[in-house]
Design a protein that fits this description.
The complex is a heterodimer of chains A (353) and B (329). Chain A has eleven helices and eight strands. By secondary structure, chain A is α/β, with parallel strands linked by helices. In chain B, 37% of the residues lie in helices and 21% in strands. The chains are: A alpha/beta (353), B alpha/beta (329). At the A-B interface, β2, α5 and α6 of A face α3 and α4 of B.
Chain lengths: 353, 329
């Protein structure tokens, strides 16, 4: 057994969460917004857990990248975004898709590779998209979608709308060139783009600090692009919501881009194949104590929300997940009818006469 | 009626489309005030302003990402990648993002955009500024691929590419920039997916693209003095591909020659030869022959580059030898 933290990252010093900012309980956030975020936390958690269960039943094939533990980022932004805004996510995009209003049944069916999936089974777990809801796609190659989000923001700027484009990405993305190209262009063109780094401390299987020149992979790079460093508690929906609202208002008002680093933690591994054993037990335990759901429940109770009201939300979400699962399982597998469609805008795949 | 060079035809075609569609924008490196390093965009920023003709940083991923995001949210875009070699820097955006996203979202998003780029050799720029990479784009489902050889085709195909709802990779050939032609008055609009028979013939079909077209025509002219009647087809559009014209020509001539600037392996001519082998086999009087750049990076020295690229001499000799070898009628 290794005793060297250079070869077994689980032996490294744990990276522990900052304490909860209880003053956020008094933040000026409408109760309806808070209840919406509480509901979203449960929906995203329930969906992720169900996706995991269905994977174990061999109904979800391939791979899945879950956001378990990180739901507060999507919940907070989902509450702050307006319907006309654009979201761009990575392959870890289930939570962001649901937070923009994607139908959970159509999302689950896509994971199962069914015809009634949101992408007809053609995209799968890593590409959830619902353009009708402003969810412009989940992209599985690190970095590109930050540049694409700029394009949507540029488009909004040219069309004179007040739409904002938001790109969600992980800490690992901050080390690829496209991150830097996108931030530079967004600043130079004063684009209404909000860049949101979900720093879960690990780039896939490797601690982010081992491969990054600065302590805070996004926030410490902000100055290079003339941006303010914004570092927030990514496990606190209120903190996320407030930061999101500020950044979205700035972008909408013509104030240009923002870069937000939301520090959070994956409760599971990188993808379905990864048990996440490379993390110190003390670290995993400390972050489990900071799970956004019990924490947010406690906050809502502390400000006087009726417990039964919250239980009713949980029950409703549980039903929704069950219905989504049934809807997904009931769908047929796609067949030859769709294999050759939608390569080109004429709906087909014809490349010759 | 005005005489324009191939390079001037680029700006002419873009201007025609920007006047027609006030939403159309373009971006790229040095395209605005500088008018493009090949002077293909001269005057556009003066007519359409810096918001519609935008200088971008040396950030090819950011450029094509911006084009993608704008196109998918309703703004048609012409993006320039200065040299086609540089497509390798941002190939993820082309091959993985723009080309696949319509399919993988089951048609939820569209990409009405054109990626213009200076392609090909013959100007002594060396291996990293001279490649012919049209075959890179041709092999990606979801892209359309166009490469005009004349000023008039430049305008008409550019207009067709801009109006097409799919992403088009549009190759402008560096060695043709100075080629001149009379441009007819009025709107010029061509059609993607159509090749053009530039010279009719009965003994051999020579298919060429971009800078290889004038060489094929020169070879055909010389062959005619030797009593060999060669038909010359300008492919113009690799995707969609006009196989009807190709197969019809081979049915008539019985012989197929492709003249390709791309290195040997997996060049577009291999696909044409394969189509003819499958569907036109019984028309053939002899083996189909690919005339290509050898499988080397392009060298810089004039003497070496001239040896590498298919020349009119090489086309002439290859066709001559093959026809002389006989077979068929």
């Amino acid at each position: 057994m290794s005793t060297d933290p250079r070869t077994d990252y689980a032996l490294r010093e744990p990276r522990l969460p900052e304490p909860i900012d209880h003053a956020l309980a008094d933040a000026p956030i409408d109760l309806d917004v808070r209840l919406g975020m509480y509901r979203a936390l449960h929906l995203l958690r329930g969906f992720g857990k169900r996706a995991h269960d269905l994977f174990l039943q061999n109904l979800v094939k391939g791979t899945t990248h879950l956001s378990l533990g990180q739901e507060a980022v999507a919940a907070g932004f989902g509450a702050a975004l307006q319907p006309q805004d654009y979201s761009f996510a990575t392959y870890r995009g289930h939570a962001h898709s649901l937070a923009r209003g994607m139908d959970p049944g159509a999302a689950m069916a896509e994971l199962l590779g069914r015809e009634n999936g949101i992408l007809g089974g053609k995209g799968g777990s890593m590409h959830l998209t619902d353009a009708s809801k402003g969810m412009m796609g989940s992209y599985a190659i690190i970095g590109a979608h930050l540049c694409t989000a700029n394009g949507a923001a540029w488009s909004a700027q040219m069309r004179g709308t007040d739409q904002v484009a938001v790109a969600f990405f992980g800490d690992g993305t901050t080390n690829i060139g496209a991150f830097h190209e996108a931030l530079n262009m967004a600043k130079v063109w004063n684009l209404p783009t909000v860049f949101v780094c979900e720093n879960n401390l690990y780039m896939e299987y490797t601690p982010i600090d081992l491969v990054t020149a600065v302590d805070h992979p996004a926030a410490d790079r902000a100055a290079a692009y003339g941006l303010e460093p914004i570092l927030i508690d990514g496990n606190d929906p209120d903190a996320v919501y407030l930061a999101a609202r500020t950044a979205l208002d700035t972008a909408r008002g013509g104030g240009g881009p923002s870069l937000i680093e939301a520090v959070t933690y994956r409760s599971g591994g990188h993808s379905r194949a990864d048990p996440g054993k490379y993390r110190p037990a003390e670290e995993v335990g400390a972050w489990a104590e900071r799970d956004p759901i019990p924490h947010y429940l406690a906050r809502l109770l502390s400000i006087g929300v009726d417990e039964q009201r919250l239980e009713a939300i949980e029950e409703e979400v549980e039903r929704q997940i069950d219905e989504a699962t049934e809807f997904a399982k009931s769908g047929p597998e796609p067949g030859e009818g769709s294999l050759l469609t939608e390569v080109y805008a004429d709906g087909g795949s014809r490349w010759r006469n | 009626m005005a005489e324009l060079t191939y390079r001037e035809a680029v700006a002419y075609g873009i201007a025609q489309e920007m006047r027609r569609d006030p939403a159309l924008v373009m971006l790229g490196e040095d395209i605005a005030a500088a008018g493009g390093v090949f002077k293909t965009t001269v005057g556009l920023v003066d007519e359409f302003g810096p918001d519609r003709v935008r200088d971008a940083p040396i950030s090819e991923q950011a450029i094509l990402g911006a084009a993608m995001g704008a196109a998918m949210t309703g703004v048609p875009v012409v993006a320039e990648i200065m040299f086609s070699d540089f497509l390798a820097v941002c190939w993820d955006i082309v091959a993985n993002e723009i080309a696949k996203s319509r399919y993988m979202t089951n048609g939820q998003v569209s990409f009405p955009l054109v990626i213009r780029t200076a392609n090909g050799g013959g100007v002594r720029f060396g291996a990293q500024h001279s490649q012919s990479v049209e075959n890179w784009a041709m092999m990606i489902p979801g892209l359309k691929v166009v490469a005009p050889s004349t000023p008039v085709d430049m305008i008409g195909l550019l207009a067709a590419a801009i109006r097409d709802p799919d992403p088009v990779v549009f190759f402008e050939h560096k060695a043709l920039m100075g080629a001149k032609a009379e441009i007819p008055d009025g709107e010029i609009l061509d059609e993607l997916g159509t090749s053009r028979v530039l010279k009719e013939g009965d003994d051999a079909t020579i298919v060429a693209l971009a800078a290889m077209v004038p060489r094929a025509l020169e070879a055909a002219e010389r062959l005619s003095h030797d009593g060999i009647s060669a038909e010359v087809i300008d492919v113009r559009s690799l995707v969609p591909l006009d196989t009807r014209t190709l197969l019809g020509s081979v049915e008539k001539t019985g012989r197929l020659f492709t003249v390709e600037e791309n290195p040997r392996l997996c060049g577009w001519g291999a696909e044409l030869v394969s189509i003819v082998a499958d569907e036109g086999f019984w028309s053939l009087d002899g083996p189909s022959v690919r005339i290509t750049t050898p499988h080397v990076p392009l060298p810089a020295a004039a003497s070496l580059e001239d040896l590498a690229l298919p020349s009119a001499d090489r086309v002439y000799e290859t066709v001559h030898k093959s026809v002389d070898a006989g077979g068929g009628a």
